[in-house]
Protein 1
Amino acid sequence: MADYVFTPPAIVGLPIADSNQLFPVRRVYCVGRNYAEHAKEMGFTGREDPFFFCKPTDALVPVATGEVTEVPYPSKTSNLHYEMELVVALGSGGCDIPVERANDCIFGYALGLDMTRRDLQNESKKQGRPWETGKAFDHSGPIGPIHPRAVTGTITQGSITLHVNGSLKQTSDLTQMIWNIPESISYLSGLFELKAGDLIFTGTPEGVGAVVKGDKLLGRIAGLGEFEIVMV
Ligand code: MN
């Protein structure tokens, strides 16, 4: 067998809550504008269908429970936004997965932040250019440990909140998603073959805003506890 010309990058593995095992990440999908009130604050009606974009796997930043994880403030932006999101981790996949069978693909759930260079994203929208510089930059995906569905049960509702420096900025309920979790999995599986190891950031509720170096972000989702980062 041929050798690689240099050492290949390591598989990105996320801790599983209360376990020594790791969840190996394959791809990171994100749902855009999946809460009507967030779509409205971004200048849309809230009735358009959601859509998908991706982050690179190595943009994920594992956030340990009970610690404040440092996340570097990225270059080339003066308007870095937080987007608190529920992340779904797949243990199996397929193509054209029916909505009724989509929950069976879920290995677990995690807290996540879809960090966004809003100034660069807005410029991309205006120019009709792709979103990578706004969404897919290094350290753009802080994510907590994976909580197995075998432990949490299937999540369909519950509060999702984000505090910045102790002040409540985002508060909603998972029932407010335009496409619920099985609908997102089913729709996405019609566009891409999903596989074990795929993550789906399921969209953010209203209340997004900017943070600066030194700001502390505390995210909570019912049933998944909380996680905390500081921008450095
Ligand atoms: Mn998002």
Protein 2
Amino acid sequence: MLSLQDSVGKLKGVGPKMGENLASLDILTVEDLLTYFPSRYDEITPINLEDAKDKQRITVKGTVISEPMMSRFGYRRSRLSFRIMVGQGVAQVTFFNQPYLAKSVQINTDVTVMGTWDQSRNEIKGTKLLTSNPNEEKGMGAIYPANKHIKQATIRKLIRQAYDQYQRVIATLLPISLRQRYQLMERREMIKQLHFPDNREMAKLAQRTAAYEEFFLFQLRLQALRRAHRQENGIQILYDNEELREFIRTIPFELTSAQKRVVNEICRDLRRPYQMNRLLQGDVGSGKTIVAGIAIYAAISTGYQVAMMAPTEILAEQHAEKLARTFSGTHVNVALLTGSMKAKQHQELLNQIENGSVNLIIGTHALIQEKVDYANLGLAIIDEQHRFGVKQRQALREKGDHPDILAMTATPIPRTLAITAYGEMDVSIIDELPAGRQPIKTTWLREKQLDQAVNFLKGQLEQGAQAYIVSPLIEESESLDVQNATALAEQYQQRFAPHYQIGLLHGRMTNEEKSAVMQDFQDGKLQVLVSTTVIEVGVDNPNATVMMIYNADRFGLAQLHQLRGRVGRGSRQSYCLLVADPKTDEGTARMETMVATTDGFVVAQRDLELRGSGDVLGSRQSGVPEFKVGDPVADLKMLQIARSDAGNLLNEPGWDEKAENQPLVLYLKRHQLATHFD
Ligand code: ADP
Ligand code: MG
């Protein structure tokens, strides 16, 4: 029995070595191979010479009208040339270093030649020769993304073989009704037309089918997963409303209306008997921490423990400190668990976590280590969630019996996209900054204006403010980054001595060293903090009003926005100084965007436009999977439609028992999301 799940090893010519090479392209099964789609097509529909443009890649069909000439030079190089007549025109054809073609070219026979047209010499520099063999590809030639382990031609050959051998067992996954509504292809036809298209129209239709199929399956998986979660027993956090209100009244500021809205969304979830799975999205400085604080209070007031995971020790410490203050005088007792604790202290804390004598545990990924046993974890919070991998998030989730999950992120993805892309999560958005915040003034200076920037900085320090200076980013080398930051800190120390103290922060320092420096900066013992980008995430010092970034054009927009978000966190006017002489248009566009807006959603949109969605939503960055065919930004409408179609199907009683839907049911089972159906 053939199955698309067969290993590619079953194909002729695929041994262990080739298997490895294919694996480097994420191709393990026959299905992976058949859905390894071309990145583009070369037109191989023959054209007339009059229609050819200079330097264009063309295909012509014609009759050989001169004896082919072979010349060899040296050991390996050769040239084959002949003339062909195409319609009324005549052209010279030259093939370099493909001597074996000579035997296929004979005077007065028909050939098809692909190559590059050289107008002035009336010559086609050939790359490929097709003789009139009916089995040859026609219409368009698929070009695959290849790598150094595996060649185009090999991929093409294997796909041909796999298709010929397995086409009988390619079942259509999409329900008939949807396929008919959108006039999409059967899956077998789709796969055939993507790899060996009859013409451009068929390739287009196949691509549309594949994009829809991909979005639909993705949405179906996520929504089935979500339903499965809802059917399992989650934790019901039945906090006392009045008690929670009283706690909220102790917060020293008024919540923004956006904060109130998301607090309501979260609290409603906490009360429900199924597992909360919610993403809290809010721009830097929008006040996510206090929202989390309210959820924490609710959970702990009913006797549960809460774990809060942050990506760096600095951030974990800062949260612990702040929340300890927020919760002083309540029954919340805060513990900090990090990797750099002393063994004895560490063990003691582990015991307390296990016997439930601490109830809010804040830490880094130390929270998910095997030896950490929670007494009764009711709520797990993940700050800066895009900094964690799927596995780490899953590990935290598994530390309790279906604890409620609140993931937080400052990556401002446009609302529509967040809702569709995060599928299995509910999304809450804080789209408003606390009142009284003055927008950060952003200035772009050229390197020759550096003195101006430094003078400005000095003026701010004289008024009692603090400043960050971010040293140039050197992608390739952490040690150069460190050298740079160190030199810069020394330079500023000399310049500002003895009035101001300069601190230094970089990735090669130990966690204790980093924390000590951060603490001194927080306490005002240091006025300036020179840093590599380690400062980027989450750090909060309301007294800092200047963020100066060297070689700012080397940073991405998302990162610049994060860095800028380190200032403007108090009531004072804050400034961001970008020092840059951009070498590219994109670099210039980034500087202009930063000057033009402080709105994270606008920055994100611009980032999407400049870079394309793949990079912004790349799985590493945000946890959103990358799509092979569909583009969640360009094809957003289609993604939305697929989302509602998937939901509708799942709502249809008995859909999973209909014979025609069995391939889809099997597909879901294979993706281990079968709980819903068992
Ligand atoms: P982020 O969303 O980037 O994590 P934080 O939670 O660190 O932001 O909040 C930034 C700052 O704003 C903190 O100092 C916090 O105390 C303050 N803050 C939060 N909400 C409000 C509010 N409604 N009014 C005034 N200040 C607030
Ligand atoms: Mg934060």
Protein 3
Amino acid sequence: MRKNPIFATIDYNSHGVQHGYLRLPYSRNDSAWGAIHIPITQVKNGIGACALLTGANHGDEYEGPLALVELAATLKPEDVSGTVIIIPFMNHPAFLAGTRVSPIDDLNMNRAFPGQPDGSPTQKIADYFQRTLLPMADVVLDFHSGGKTLDFLPFAASHALDDPEQQARCRAARDAFNAPFSIEMREIDALGMYDDAVESQGKTFVTTELGGGGTATPDTAEIARKGVRNLLIHAGILAGELTIAPSRLLSQEDDDCFHVTNHSGLVDFAVALGQSVTKGDLIARIWDTQHTGILPRSVFALMDGIVTARHHPGLVQPGDCLAVLATEATP
Ligand code: ZN
């Protein structure tokens, strides 16, 4: 396969702290010999596991970038046994634009894996993770939140995996992250996801959804900061004690958890994040935006559960995911 065109300005084999860039050549109208510069920090010291930490896989999600810029600015080699690779803005063009997908190629990083070394910028970044960064890592954390169009209960997630040993490792890492909620997550559309690329290489993987609406709050940013420290302690890379608070365990076992609207309009939620609902309960009413005097369409719960995600903007279109339910599980 072709060599990936990305050049790292840091040396992955060197010990100590290095701040640099993943330099992706990108020739364009305003810079003929220009490049996309994705900031990267590596902190390496002694023998130990390698953690790969990413934020802004989607450009409008902020808890991961907040936790990771702080970690990159403060982590010292003497604190570390092993290697920490920190990339706060994985899809840097999308992050700078404040958009979910890249404004350059309109591609969603989390649907672009395994990527292409001769593809568009997002595909090239994905290929660099797939073939260069992931093989170096033992533990991988990829921060997500709801972005501008979804809002989530703050949770850390693992997935159901074919290998029970790997699944147990991922669950243990998720529980060490210790978000207020922990979940075995079901994906609405897993094809091309970074999650799948990481898990297929046998790595210990934790992902999150820590809020949303295109911003972060003091609480959700703190969940991210605490979670990444806990994960590094769990991996034996940082010394110290885990900071553990109660976490409610959730699971998503069938596709009825996804509640999709067939209509456009003004959404009138009857339930809030974290609320328990029973099958048949009203989730939301959708009001017509072109006419008055018309009664709304109703969307009802397809199962019993807790509202773990909801559509954030006030208007919806056919096919929008309005709400996602999960059931409380016993650890
Ligand atoms: Zn995301």
Protein 4
Amino acid sequence: MGQPGIDALSFYVPQHYLPLSVLAAEQGIEPAKFSHGIGQDKLAMPGPDEDIVTLGAEAARKVLKGEDLSAIDTLLFATESGIDQSKAAGVFVHRLLGLPSTCRVVELKQACYSGTAALQLACGHVMRRSGRKVLVIAADIARYDLDSPAEATQGAGAVAMLVSDTPRLMQIEPISGLHSEDIMDFWRPNYRSTPLVDGKYSTEKYLETLTGAWRDYQAQGGHSFQEFAHFCYHLPFTRMGAKAHAHLSELAGADYDPARINAGLIYNRAVGNCYAAALYLSLASMLDNTAEDLSGQTLGLFSYGSGAVAEFFAAKVQPGYEAYLHRAHHAGLLANRTALSFDAYRTMWHRMWQGTDPQDGGHYQMPQIAKGQFRLTAIDGHKRCYAAG
Ligand code: CAA
């Protein structure tokens, strides 16, 4: 049995986006505030027939192509955009993907951190019995109150990872630096469809927990800062990643070098926040957009989930990894989207909540907007109906 890690990785984003230059013009804000101050160009906008189930299933479809599905005995679905207080979103995905009935399915939540919890648990699980694989899906829809400072940092997307004990892309190393602390920087009570957020405080806590997680990582004998070729950070917006890297560089007594993070910011700039999936979208961006061969190199990953739980860990890129990337598919997904006008964006924003959260038990047919293979077709008698197209 080898070292556990990521065998395959892909993402999926909605068909529509709002250019942040449009939001800036409408709100009388300098476009540079979003493009430089926040570090975002577009925010991905799901239609009423897309949700975490359809986004997650689309992402997973790519990583499962050609795989022996009978080897997958666990599906871990990480999200803070839950569609049900009881049933795991992954159970819908399990059916849509035709996974075997001999598979456990569970949902994990801890704000944007849960994708990392799922990945680490999956790594532990595959080491118990050789040949078993775990499908990890992280999917979220980041939606904030309209006209709030956070509106520009909205987004949506899903990342799927297949975890095995013979990973083709990267090994996940066993040392993790951890930092947990009970704080109220960002949270969403059950009765709200948008979170409450203390924005400035959340950015401060993000950096403080990075300090805690890094110190714990170092105390356990992890790699030195200079041994990492590149770093990927949780990206609520890409400027946060730049601030995090400057902070870590300072802690390590090193100069700030943007070349060690820039490839990992490209996809997130064009998608926006996708909470649990954001770090792994950055990882996909790093692998796809780094021109040099990363084989044998070590990447540093920092995961932050408000509330708060933070983790710093290392991944070692495997020789030959490039053959298993989905560069062209990912480039096509981002290029073939449709830009929304401001009015169309606002209409879609309202429709997404009102249309997909009816409470009277009636029949609600969803308009066909999604172009992927999976759709939320209707909500009928309090039940969500999904179809593979
Ligand atoms: N040109 C260039 N830069 C400009 C500018 C211009 N014309 N105008 C303003 N800026 C800069 C500002 O100087 C500022 O830069 P610094 O951070 O370096 O000071 C930056 O743009 C942001 O502007 P503001 O300070 O005015 O901040 P804001 O009121 O727009 O709010 C925010 C920013 C607090 C991040 C807000 O977007 C927010 O609340 N977002 C949601 C919370 C969040 O994402 N928190 C991140 C940590 S928590 C986490 O990571 C979990 C998660 O996913 C939610």
